[in-house]
Design a protein that fits this description.
2 copies of one chain form a homodimer. By secondary structure, chain A is mainly alpha-helical. In chain A, about 70% of the residues lie in helices and about 0% in strands. Chain A has 2 domains: about 60 residues, Homeodomain-like (Arc Repressor Mutant, subunit A); about 120 residues, Orthogonal Bundle (Tetracycline Repressor, domain 2). Chain A binds a DNA duplex through helix 1 and helix 3.
DNA sequence: TTGGTACAACGACACGGTATTTGTTCGATT
DNA sequence: AATCGAACAAATACCGTGTCGTTGTACCAA
């Protein structure tokens, strides 16, 4: 009965409980699948449990309640996507290019992310307040990640910024706007247009 | 029975109908007052009409229906606020400073605007989709205004930009984010922090 | 530790019936 | 010519009711 949802990243330290972690991950996978297909409100714990092949009580034992399960699914997905982006950046030499490419990838990937788009189109009244009025609670994870990435590049002498946290917040605000309002001159569906934008307007910020 | 709501700016050409325009403006004023105090949904046409001191039928005769009245009130308020900002900018010498100051004023004024804040707090499910998913329909007015302002400054040789429309959209996206998500390192309630931000990150865009 | 069941509490939902609001029309009034 | 006040049907919001599904917890056998 974990107090906070355990992300899949902490799996490495408990490879012994292979069986236990297996059900844990099965439930998270089932939750992601069902939430993506039917939305948060219309999927029941029964749906998730049966899809995961476990009893409903087991899901409650692992995640406490539905809301914590939702948080765990979303948190794991965020970390997974961050991991994908980070992995892709390993192929780049310049840390400056890496920061800009992270921006581009985050925007374009979010724009085609099944769960995010599902919730935006079928339950906007639930998710829009979260991604705007209360967005500081949501992006905390992303901002510290991005800010530390900026600081690392700065200490290595590759970029020069005034305030890494401020810059990270600005980049995240632009991501927020592009994802929530895709219809404009820069289109998240067109990776090239986003990359051009980042190159022209964000690169100067990196000193 | 005007097809589209007539903004107050077209008043100049019809000063003859002083009496008619007076009721027109009285209804708009009453609408603004009631919408601000009770929200869009909870104010009735009866409320607006009686507050304006006219019959309910007159309000319908002038604006068609409630939705068109709402649009007219909001449109007039947007134009009024734009006018206020433009008037304030007349006091500045540098067109470059004027553009940045317009950004600062727009953000800080929107953050304390009674109607906008009222709708954000009491009817977010109605207004958030409008200001995000369908925001391109809303900001058309602002973008052409801002882009033409940028172009004017550019033709006068005061700034040098790559694409005035693109730049205008970027500035508007940052305004959108700051207004909809005020909680962050830059706070719209603190004019100085917004001005610092504009100075540091937006000024380089102006060439 | 799991699965299955039983359970109370809660919220969503469907239903009628009522009241309000909307949008239109008309005649009287200025 | 435009306004007001009134009347009107239609649409919509509201309310009380009951039903159903879901949630979250507890228990016991495996």
């Amino acid at each position: 009965m974990p107090d906070q949802a355990m992300p899949s990243l902490s799996l490495g330290s408990e490879l012994d409980f292979n069986n236990g972690d297996a059900t844990y991950i099965k439930i998270l996978d089932a939750g992601l699948a069902q939430f993506t297909e039917f939305g948060l409100r219309r999927t029941t714990m029964e749906d998730v449990a049966s899809k995961a092949g476990v009893g409903r009580a087991t899901a409650y034992r692992r995640f406490g309640d539905k809301h914590q399960l939702i948080q765990a699914v979303i948190l794991r997905e965020c970390q997974y996507q961050l991991g994908l982006i980070e992995a892709h950046l390993k192929t780049l030499d310049s840390p400056r290019d890496a920061l800009l490419e992270a921006f581009v990838l985050a925007v374009t990937r979010a724009h085609v992310h099944p769960l995010l788009q599902r919730l935006l189109s079928s339950e906007p009244e639930d998710i829009l307040p979260l991604l705007t009025l209360q967005w500081s609670r949501v992006i905390a994870l992303f901002r510290v990640q991005l800010a530390s990435q900026i600081r690392r590049a700065e200490e290595a002498g590759h970029v020069k910024v005034h305030d890494a946290d401020q810059l990270a917040e600005l980049m995240l605000r632009l991501m927020q706007s592009l994802v929530l309002s895709p219809d404009g001159l820069m289109n998240p569906a067109d990776e090239a247009s986003i990359r051009d934008m980042a190159d022209r307007y964000l690169r100067p910020w990196l000193g």
